[in-house]
């Protein structure tokens, strides 16, 4: 059994990793670290794990020491030194935050206010979107797990961008996420009374996933991909639905575009291109690692509309982390991720 | 006291009209018609009205007869003959459905599959958006109350369209509505388990409010306004939030645009242009007749983002109907509509 | 116009009082105090009030000075000295907290850990349940507005207790409340993700409303009324539903009990005894000041089941405060409270 | 691989069985029947299964023929003849409905209006509560899977009833269930707008699970166990929480009662007796087969309060069906059921 540790195991991403790893047939949780809950059992924080997963939180060093592979689920900026140390000790690192998502330090600095500690680590690290980078992930030692919104927008646009079928500029991504996306911290915006029966946008055209998406898609396109990205907060626990508006360079035949998507994702188990006429819907991917993509065309206005959805804690975070782990360790990609969606 | 009747009083729009009229100081409910519940008390359908509003449903003729003004809250296509008869008897008609929203019969026919029964009625009727047509409403005998999505998009765009500040084509309206918008009927999409904890788009680029919005804005612009409109279903009871993407014809200064909005709506009690930096949010208009508009600019991509929200049963339907009634009857526009939003 | 001030105006009870008073025809809000938001507009805290209610927060003294009547919406223990001062200045006080709900200091001390500062004030104060104490309220200078759960349980049991129809001991009150009941503060239990799609009990058999209910009902019964009271947290914003189990002293005829309830509440506008066969339901009282009561009998086990529901922010708190204000000022009790429930 | 068929596979219980069986390592779904959807793929009804589980619905006969074991998920009254036929063909039957839950035909007839077709089948059938009947289940050919509410109440009371610690009469079970409990059919009470932000009781003291609970507990007690059972509808998809009030025969020590529960369930993987001080909560068992039980004592009133919760689709239905299948087939009881709860 591979020993996998979790640094920062008590936030939502950490807890979801624990939930998934607890049923993984080839990996054992070696340890979980938490500064805040050091010494406490994970079930004292998540009573649903009572009697099932009672591992006690330790220090980061202890966890790194015991592990073959570590997941790092910390606020951005805190992963770099941990990764440096772990790599030195020959551990594989999957960083769930933003520290290893960027190749462009200037972008990282502009949006996150931090610099790269050790450039070589960033050069070697791989952006962990398996549908784009599988072969690189296979050989990576440091993987930057993509952002939740970023995953949903990138998977929706990759087939179009890679073939240059749409204008690279002027793309609009109107995205909606459940509240787990903003984490375990108590904030005004996650207070039940403030989000229940309500809905709003936030960080309008100013969300940190914008540069991540643009960098990833530009690297595929070889052109400068630009998008207006607006996230909204849905009064639900889990799920992201992204409605994306793109302008085809010339008039399209939706059926042909659909075929291209099918072809592009034909070997991708976790991306389902829905039949034409169907619409992606959050409850159809809930609690699963699948991403649904539906395609629509407003011929009158020559707008291609791509609607993608996924579970932000799964394909948008911990599930994708496990998928990356399976790849880097040479397991079947589905291992521990095969559960059907909980459609109700 | 003016006698107001409601034709089709047992659907959600009818019930909301009853709720509002029950506390209107200058109008009395003369009667309520229902084919399905003829003879039954409205409180047997909505037990919350028990002991408060016990009026029994009658036939349409009886209601028209007793009323000075009638609200018609029927599925589209059923209002025309009722209006014809009521006008003949000199009653004022506020049609809550789509039959009198269009001047262009071809559009109406294309999207609703019906023809105009009596063209003169349609010529004389007024589209009941007070912020656009107040003076015409004042003298109208037949008012076509706007659609809920249409109200939210039109109010958001009127200041820009009327000054020609944005490209008239290529506008995108990504709209999200609560479930009351789809009415009282039992459908798969309004089954609790299907929409709770979920979210999806529907009628993608194919919703009947599209031509209504385009016709209204084009009449203001004198140019052909075209938009891609995609509605989504929120797991909440009430509220619409529309995120609208428009391309300024030339680079703009957001503060100046904001001032124009303030100026445009300075005498409009029910439209609140939020301070720059604020974002419209559904719970801030819930159970009220207000429409909130917030303005944002993605300079990088030259996209102006207008976010408007309102309560679909109030400013989006029954509340606006009451506002129109107040105007046509010469009352203060706020009469019966002054309640502050229920912010929680 | 009467000048009414609100001490502690920025919590949920304060905000609901502001919402209601803003549309009261005979009372004007003289001032609102807040330690935390001193100098800030109430609309900066509740943006739904933007452009409608922009009063700025002041000090407690300033508010008391300007007011004929004050509502005090502070955590328990903080009202006594304010009331003492205000009474000295001849103001009427309606305390929304627990400080003036008890006659028995020992009980107050046991459950709230505080003592009575000035016993005479407590002797003169009146427990503000209009259906029980209307005549005393009319002449009161200090009114202790009842707790939300307490109101729902007391109204449900008063007719039975006053006639001695049920065993005074062994009553069970299984109560369920929406999240506004726990206020505006950010807590683990009010984090969206923790209560959405969940449900639990809290303070099991140990909630502070227990002694309030027992003292009130015992004072009516002249016997020692004892109950097991268990509150639960519903994933909704507003509303309390109490399912109460009582043992009739002898076999009963449900229709006769129902008649007694009807008789008991025949002059009470805000208490609706539902027809036999109906069941109280939270959406039927939402956003209104009504209390619905339904009666059921499990003959097999000789248990009378009384189900009452109300909106915890209205009849359970601010609405009842306004009702008490109307009584003490000699207005119609319905003034400002006549809105029909928002049944959806 | 064992071949398992599902008769009535398109309702919620059927769909949940499909979700669980799709990841069971020792069982294959042989077929699914549906009268309504004959010939259609299960993914056309549940689009979340698209690309994952595409089995087409067949006739009941076809499914029985291909299967070693069948689950029957039909409305009550329709299982008996199917079971008779399947038993004749030597298949194992797990009936998810009520037809095989009763030994007492009179009770079944009183509450379900049907008679036993073949008495011998009912005599041989086993009530499928593993914690009570594991040894009988092991050898059964026909298993009556318990009701959801019944499971939650029985597991909560078994330790007390089996030792005679509480009064057998006068037990109160105040139960709350999510909306999946009322199934896939479109009804007024499952319309989103009617249950969202609301809460109510239904079938007050008149629910069909009452006799099931009483029969089961009486068979353990050897005395006549009687309870008042009131179900309520929670605005959530999944989960049941039961608050149960029992009267100890003599004063108790809660710690000793707690120890008895621990002892009683020490070998039961799916029943977790929480530490004293903790309270059962629905999100701690969501999407899992666990039942949480917490214990509380109101010493003042000598009431023992037992709060149990489970996921009504899992331990309350399909999960328990799989558990029974594992037992009867000699597999580990956890097979296919080991997932940790989705605590958010």
UniProtKB/TrEMBL annotation, chains A, B, C, D:
Enzyme class: oxidoreductase
Annotated Gene Ontology cellular component terms: cytoplasm
Pathway: Amino-acid biosynthesis; L-arginine biosynthesis; N(2)-acetyl-L-ornithine from L-glutamate: step 3/4
InterPro entries, per database record: AGPR, AGPR_AS, AGPR_dimerisation_dom, AGPR_type-1, NAD(P)-bd_dom_sf, Semialdehyde_DH_NAD-bd
Top-rank taxon, per record: Bacteria
SUPFAM superfamilies: Glyceraldehyde-3-phosphate dehydrogenase-like, C-terminal domain, NAD(P)-binding Rossmann-fold domains
Signal peptide: none
Limits of the Semialdehyde dehydrogenase NAD-binding domain: 3-140
Gene Ontology MF: a single term: N-acetyl-gamma-glutamyl-phosphate reductase activity
Reactions the enzyme catalyzes: N-acetyl-L-glutamate 5-semialdehyde + phosphate + NADP(+) = N-acetyl-L-glutamyl 5-phosphate + NADPH + H(+)
Keyword entries, A-Z: Amino-acid biosynthesis, Arginine biosynthesis, Cytoplasm, NADP, Oxidoreductase
Known function: Catalyzes the NADPH-dependent reduction of N-acetyl-5-glutamyl phosphate to yield N-acetyl-L-glutamate 5-semialdehyde.
Family: Belongs to the NAGSA dehydrogenase family. Type 1 subfamily.
The protein, known as: N-acetyl-gamma-glutamyl-phosphate reductase
Source organism: Clostridium luticellarii
Gene encoding the protein: argC
